[in-house]
Design goal:
globular
């Protein structure tokens, strides 16, 4: 078990050249669906896709995750075929998930220490950008909501593309955030709770801080090259504060 001092030293080293924090949404910001199965959302998407495309392939049909199915649908759409698939299928699927996300943020609670993390980054820097496979509209609604009320302290949100392009583990959203900020990859830090976040960071060339309460996932992240892993935002808050304090 790492001590608080170990956390502090490692995080200060990680943060010393960071000019922007890129934070994943579902997990590090909030547990959006609070552990509830999203299989009913996936089933609704399959029905909508069958109505537009007439079929779904076996991998899509087997998927019971509302976001995993979006990646699979984009792969299905991109696959060479004698007749191109209608992009309206992608639009319909994305709208269904977005609708559920808007409903979910109404009752979603911020992750522990999320609000003080947003406050300390706003006060001392670096700027905070949300980089997510969720739609940007519900993300902004979450930060505007009464439980958080910190929308003015978020520099930008880079959310899901309406046509489902470049969802993590693809690095597209990370690269879009870097372009928006005008920063090279090594000047930002991506914080995420999934191996797909780590993969996106590595492909973009961005340092990665894992955030997970799972020792097994944390160990896997480190094995795959994550710079560091924490189970709480608290040590990151303290590291930012200590770096901003006069010597």
């Amino acid at each position: 078990m790492s001590s608080a001092a170990d956390h502090g030293a490692a995080l200060r080293e990680l943060l010393k050249d960071v000019h922007a924090v890129l934070l994943d949404f579902d997990g590090p910001v909030t547990d959006l669906f609070r552990g509830r199965s999203t299989a009913p959302v996936a089933d609704e998407i399959k029905a909508a896709i069958r109505g537009v495309w007439g079929f779904v392939d076996a991998e899509v049909n087997a998927c019971e995750d509302s976001h995993g199915i979006l990646r699979l649908l984009r792969e299905m759409y991109d696959r060479p075929a004698p007749e191109p698939l209608d992009p309206r299928g992608l639009v319909a699927a994305e709208r269904i998930v977005t609708g559920y996300e808007y409903e979910a943020v109404k009752t979603a609670k911020p992750a522990p220490h999320l609000v003080p993390l947003v406050d300390v980054l706003f006060k001392h820097g670096p700027p905070l950008v949300i980089v997510s496979n969720n739609s940007d509209g519900p993300i902004w609604e979450f930060f505007k909501g009464e439980r958080v009320q910190r929308q003015e302290k978020v520099c930008a949100v880079v959310g899901r593309d309406p046509l489902l392009r470049d969802m993590k583990p693809h690095p597209g959203s990370v690269l879009r955030a870097l372009e928006l900020l005008g920063l090279p990859p090594e000047s930002a830090l991506l914080i995420g709770d999934q191996l797909t976040d780590l993969s996106a960071a590595q492909q973009a060339g961005t340092p990665f801080l894992g955030y997970t309460q799972s020792p097994e996932r944390g160990a896997r992240m480190l094995d795959l090259g994550a710079q560091y892993v924490v189970s709480s935002h608290a040590p990151l808050i303290e590291a930012v504060k200590s770096m901003s304090s006069p010597n």
